[in-house]
Amino acid sequence: MKNIAVLTSGGDAPGMNAAIRAVVRMGIISGFNVFGVRKGFRGLINGDFEKMNESSVSDIIQRGGTILQTARSEEFKTEEGQDKAAKMAKIFDIDGLVVIGGDGSFAGAKRLSEKGVACIGVPGTIDNDLAYTDYSIGFDTAVNNVLDAINRIRDTSSSHERASIIEVMGRYSGDIALYAGLAGGAEGIIVPEMGFELDDICRLLIERKNKGKLHSIIILAEGAGDAKQLEQQIMENVDIEVRSTILGYIQRGGSTTAFDRILASRLGARAVELLAEGKSSRVVGIRDNKLIDMEIVEALGMKKVFPRELYELAIKLQ
Ligand code: ATP
Questions:
Q1: Would you state the CATH architecture of domain 142-253?
Q2: Atom of ligand 1 nearest to the CA of 76
Q3: pTM (predicted TM-score)
Q4: Is the Cβ atom of 36 under 6 angstroms away from ligand 1?
């Protein structure tokens, strides 16, 4: 194997740049020519490649987003699209590919591996919804971005004696809401894995008001409900002013945390090592702070376990 490539796919996640940097630098150290593929699998189909060198990845370790850009490609989901992508890899003599993304991207990497392009998946998604790894790249930065927002909203909501609902990302996973809620001392955490009763939220807010607390913050995972709707429902039931904020894309931006930079550096470098060892159709991840790798099919077949004990602790400490 002489030439390898790297692409980012699916939603962008802070730390993807640190992973690209690790792949490029580790690839060069290992004696490969390294190519960047712009715009994910779409770029692969179109042959949108760029030869990378050490300086192509200078000054990016701290930056959110991805210098290679990311995209979703419907064409690549078809057999025909995958054939085109595999053919393009052959034309450019690329034998190994590092795919940084989430479960959809991994499914694509598995298909490409079956078509003769050795692929290794690196988990890059803020949702932390991949069961086989304790953390995916971008999650920690997203949690810290939510924490910043909690601090700001606390300042303003306590000045007005309001309750605040903060809706956070995560798709069907409640991890961002849970971790940010626990770290931010939120008074309520609503996640899809546990569900919630409106009456419980109303009682919590009234009890806090009766104790003279000036404000309450409820973190709502996007997969568990709609912030505006919850705001209305609470105000119809209790005499408390509620304001909701949907954080949206600010959760993805900003400087990448040290945790994500280190995780991305370790995982990106390990992916290159696996390619150098002749491995394919595998993903890298982290468990108990140790790097692991396994078959893509096995990883995608695992069911995510919600950290229930952490949730129960957060509820106790509310
Ligand atoms: P995120 O968690 O951030 O959404 P993701 O990798 O799960 O990341 P998707 O949009 O699901 O994001 O997938 C990214 C791309 O991977 C898709 O646009 C498509 O090109 C490819 N892909 C997704 N699912 C499959 C599949 N089952 N087979 C082949 N390719 C797929």
A1: 3-Layer(aba) Sandwich (3.40)
A2: 20
A3: 0.96
A4: no
